[in-house]
Amino acid sequence: MKKTIIIFSIIALILCSISFIYDAVASSSNGFEAWGFKKEAGVAPLIEDSAKSMLGSTNSFYIGDQTQKTLYLTFDCGYELGYTPKILDTLKSENVTAAFFVTGHFVDKNPDLIRRMDEQGDIIGNHTVNHIVMPSSSDEKITQEIKGLSDKVNEALGKNYDMKYLRPPKGEYSLHSLQLTQSLGIRTVFWSSAYVDWTDNHKGDLDYSFNAITSQFHNGSVILLHNTSQNNADVLERVIEDAKAKGFEFGSLDEIE
């Protein structure tokens, strides 16, 4: 009887140990992360080594070639407030392309803008159908959200569009979500320059927005802006001209290896 109890106790201990190890591994790979960095005016931001490692192992990126004076404009488009047409007008007149990370709501309500982005040579990126929290979503849910958004873009364009890039909503991710996105043949794109442009705190203060964007210029910068900011639409031409005057060029995410 005692031997039986001892054996069961040992088995229980082994199972607990296995469970502990499994949980630790799961926590490491599925742990919730929020993209962030320490800003350094005029130079690339400081990124944690752990984040760099996760991005490197999953073909993800947040910055381009830091030896080149190239900037990459990207816009997150959750919905439309009427400013995207002006943004597209400015890009066209300045002969600059950008990447637009769109949600299902944006595509459903603005198929004409999706078509215009494609016609102008801009990149249409994936921001998931419902702007989900990726690190806490199931594999099935993430896959549905990514493929569902691609289907909506295909329908809007009337053709198959190769959606090669995804930006996690709110910059929330985990090693597992990065790996899953990679397994679907898509690169995750973060950013190395941003400012609080999704509120009305500085609405109308174009000098504030201009300085907030241009003070962060650095080689290889992937600039995050939101299409819902009127300031961004109103100041974009000035920002682009300032960048060009400083010797910067604007590139496409397709150029980043």
Break the fold down into its secondary structure elements and pairings:
Blueprint: H1 2-30, E1 33-34, E2 38-40, E3 43-46, H2 49-57, E4 70-77, H3 84-93, E5 99-102, H4 104-109, H5 111-119, E6 123-126, H6 139-157, E7 165-166, E8 172-173, H7 175-183, E9 187-188, H8 206-214, E10 222-226, H9 230-245, E11 249-250
Parallel strand pairs: 4-5, 4-10, 4-11, 5-6, 7-9
Antiparallel strand pairs: 1-8, 2-3
Helix pairs in contact: 3-9, 8-9
List keywords for this structure.
two-stranded antiparallel ribbon, disordered N terminus, 2 domains, 257 residues, alpha/beta, TIM Barrel
Explain how this protein is built.
This protein is of the alpha/beta class. It has two domains: 1-30; 41-255, TIM Barrel, CATH 3.20.20.370. It is 45% helix and 15% strand. It has nine helices and eleven strands. Strands 4, 5, 6, 10 and 11 form a five-stranded parallel β-sheet that branches. A two-stranded antiparallel sheet has the order 1-8. Helix 3 (84-93) runs parallel beside helix 9. The longest helix is centred in the N-terminal third of the chain and has 29 residues, at 2-30. The termini are far apart. 36% of the residues are buried.
